[in-house]
Design goal:
Elements: E1 19-22, H1 33-42, E2 47-51, E3 55-57, E4 73-75, E5 79-82, E6 89-92, E7 100-103, E8 106-110, E9 112-115, E10 118-119, E11 125-128, E12 131-135, E13 138-140, E14 143-144, E15 158-161, E16 164-168, E17 171-173, E18 176-178, E19 185-186, E20 190-193, E21 196-200, E22 203-205, E23 208-210, E24 220-221, E25 225-228, E26 232-235, E27 238-240, E28 243-245, E29 251-252, E30 256-259, E31 263-266, E32 269-271, E33 274-276, E34 282-284, E35 288-291, E36 296-299, E37 302-304, E38 307-309, E39 312-314, E40 318-321, E41 326-330, E42 333-335, E43 338-341, E44 345-347, E45 351-354, E46 357-361, E47 364-366, E48 369-372, E49 375-377, E50 381-384, E51 390-394, E52 397-399, E53 402-405, E54 412-413, E55 417-421, E56 423-427, E57 431-433, E58 436-437, E59 444-445, E60 449-451
Parallel strand pairs: 1-2, 2-5, 3-6, 4-7, 5-8, 6-9, 7-11, 8-12, 9-13, 10-14, 11-15, 12-16, 13-17, 14-18, 15-20, 16-21, 17-22, 18-23, 19-24, 20-25, 21-26, 22-27, 23-28, 24-29, 25-30, 26-31, 27-32, 28-33, 29-34, 30-35, 31-36, 32-37, 33-38, 34-39, 35-40, 36-41, 37-42, 38-43, 39-44, 40-45, ...
C-alpha cells in the first residue's frame, strides 16, 4: 500500500494593483490626476492611472514639497500612467514647477506627453533612486534652470540620480538646460548621474544645453543626453539638431556627452548636432564626446553634418579624450562633419582621439573638414595617443577630407589622418587617398603603418 504525504506551502501575499481612471482635468480637486497619484502612493504595489485624451494642467501653486499637495506631482510608489486616444494625453506644468518627481519608486509613462516643466533638475521628470520607463511618449518643451541664475540646470527633460532611465519608441524634443554661475550645465534632453540610460527607437531633436551666463566659467555638456558614471545604450534612434553651447569654457557633445562612463551606439543616426563655444574656449564632439571613461562602441550608424566650433575645436562628429577603453567604430559612415577653430586650432573633422585607443572597421570617412586659424590637423581622423595607445584601421575608406589652416596654411596637415603620437596601423584593404591639406602630407601626417589583411 502506497502512502501519499500532503505538504502545505505558504501562499505569497501580494498587494493587488488599483486602477484609477482620470477624466477631471482641473488640478487639485476631487477626481484629479493629483488626487489619483496621492491615492496610488498610499496603496502599496504598482498601480495604474488611465488618463482620458485631454490636457491636464498643473496650477496648484505652493512651495515645492513631496506630499503631492501642490507644485509638481510626487510619485513615491510604483506607478504606471497611461494616456488614451490617438494623440495620447498631456500633462502640462505650465511653468509652475517640474511635472513629475519620482523618489525611490518606478514610473512608467505610456502614450503621455510631458511638457511645460521648469526646475533646476529635471524640468519634465526627476527620478531619484528609482526607475523611469518612457514608452511611446513625448518629453517636450521643458527647462532645467534656476530662476535666481545661480545653479546650472541638469536634465531639461529628464534628470536621473542613481536610477535606471529607459526611453523606448518616444520623442524627446525642444527641452533646454540653462547654465547659471555655479556648476556645469548638463543634458538638454536627459541628464543621468549614476544608474543607467537605455534608448531605443526614439528621436531626440532640438534639445540644448546652454551655458547662458557670459561672465561665468560654465561648461556645457550633452545637448541631448549627458551620462556621468552611467552606462549608455542607444539603438535604432535619431539625434537631430541638438546643441551644446559653452561660453568662457568648453562645450562637450552636441548630442551626447559621456563622462566617466561607457557607451554603445547601434543602428542610429546623428545629423546637424553642434558643440560650440567662444573664440577663446573649446568645442569638443559635435555629435558625441566621451571623456575620462571606458569603451565607446559605434556600429551601423551614420554621422552627417555635425560640427564643433570654437577657438579650439576637436572632433566634428566624435571626440574621445583620456579614456581607458577603446573607441570602436564599425560598419558606419562619418560624412560632412566639421571641426572649426577659426582663431586657433582645429583637429579631427570627423574623429578626434586623444590618449584613447581606436579601432575603425568597415567604415567610410569622407567629406569631413578641420579648419583652424593657426593649426589644422586630421580632416578625417586626428590621433594623439600616449606611447601605449593604438589606432587600428581595417577595411575602411578615408577620402575627400581636408585640413586647412587659414592664417598659417603650412600648418594644415594630414587631410585624411593625423598621427602625433602612439601607434597607428591600416590594413592593405583600407584606402586613404584623395584628401587635401593646406600644408604638406595631404593624406597622412605622421606614420600609419600598413599591415597585411
Amino acid at each position: 500500500m502506497r502512502t501519499h504525504t500532503m505538504r502545505l506551502e505558504a501562499l505569497e501575499l501580494r498587494a493587488l494593483f488599483s486602477a484609477f481612471h482620470v477624466s477631471v482635468t482641473d488640478d487639485g480637486v476631487a477626481g484629479s490626476l493629483r488626487e489619483a497619484i496621492a491615492q496610488a502612493n498610499a496603496h502599496p504595489g504598482q498601480d495604474v492611472i488611465i488618463l482620458q485624451a485631454d490636457r491636464f494642467t498643473l496650477n496648484s501653486s505652493g512651495a515645492a514639497q513631496d506630499t503631492d499637495q501642490s507644485a509638481d506631482l510626487d510619485v513615491t510608489d510604483n506607478l504606471r500612467i497611461v494616456g488614451t486616444g490617438s494623440g495620447g494625453s498631456t500633462i502640462d506644468a505650465a511653468g509652475l514647477d517640474r511635472v513629475l518627481d519620482v523618489s525611490g519608486a518606478s514610473l512608467e509613462l505610456q502614450n503621455v506627453a510631458v511638457t511645460g516643466g521648469q526646475a533646476v533638475q529635471g524640468g519634465g521628470v526627476r527620478v531619484a533612486d528609482g526607475s523611469l520607463l518612457v514608452n511611446h511618449s513625448t518629453i517636450t518643451g521643458n527647462t532645467a534652470s534656476d530662476p535666481s541664475g545661480v545653479a546650472s540646470g541638469q536634465g531639461g527633460g529628464i534628470f536621473g540620480s542613481n536610477s535606471q532611465l529607459t526611453i523606448s519608441d518616444s520623442v524627446v524634443s525642444d527641452n533646454h538646460a540653462v547654465g547659471g554661475t555655479v556648476g556645469n550645465v548638463e543634458g538638454g534632453g536627459v541628464a543621468a548621474i549614476g544608474g543607467s540610460v537605455t534608448v531605443s527607437g526614439s528621436t531626440f531633436s532640438n534639445n540644448t544645453a546652454l551655458a547662458g551666463n557670459t561672465t561665468a566659467t560654465v561648461q556645457g555638456r550633452g545637448g541631448a543626453i549627458y551620462a556621468q558614471g552611467s552606462p549608455l545604450s542607444v539603438d535604432s534612434s535619431q539625434f537631430n539638431q541638438n546643441s551644446v553651447l559653452g561660453n568662457r569654457t568648453d562645450g562637450h557633445g552636441g548630442a551626447i556627452s559621456i563622462f566617466n562612463g561607457s557607451g554603445t551606439i547601434t543602428a542610429s543616426s546623428f545629423t546637424q548636432n553642434q558643440s560650440a563655444s567662444s573664440s577663446s574656449a573649446g568645442a569638443v564632439g559635435g555629435a558625441i564626446s566621451i571623456d575620462n571613461g571606458g569603451d565607446l562602441t559605434v556600429a551601423d550608424s551614420v554621422f552627417s553634418s555635425n560640427s564643433a566650433t570654437a577657438g579650439i575645436a576637436f572632433g566634428g562628429a566624435i571626440s574621445a579624450i583620456v579614456n581607458s577603453g577603446t573607441v570602436h567604430i564599425s560598419n558606419s559612415t562619418i560624412q560632412d562633419n566639421s571641426a572649426s577653430g577659426p582663431t586657433l586650432i582645429a583637429e579631427g573633422g570627423g574623429i578626434y582621439l586623444n590618449s584613447t585607443n581606436g579601432l575603425i572597421e568597415s567604415t567610410t570617412i569622407t567629406g569631413n573638414s578641420a579648419t583652424g586659424g593657426f593649426v589644422a590637423r586630421g580632416g578625417g581622423i586626428s590621433f594623439l595617443g600616449s606611447p601605449s595607445n593604438r589606432l587600428d584601421i581595417r577595411d575602411s575608406t578615408i577620402t575627400n577630407n581636408s585640413a586647412t589652416a587659414t592664417v598659417f596654411p603650412a600648418n594644415g596637415v594630414g587631410g585624411g589622418v593625423s598621427v602625433l603620437a602612439g601607434t597607428a596601423t591600416a590594413d592593405d584593404d583600407t584606402v586613404i587617398s584623395g584628401n587635401h591639406a593646406s600644408g604638406s602630407q595631404q593624406d597622412v601626417f605622421g606614420t600609419v603603418t600598413i599591415v597585411p589583411d
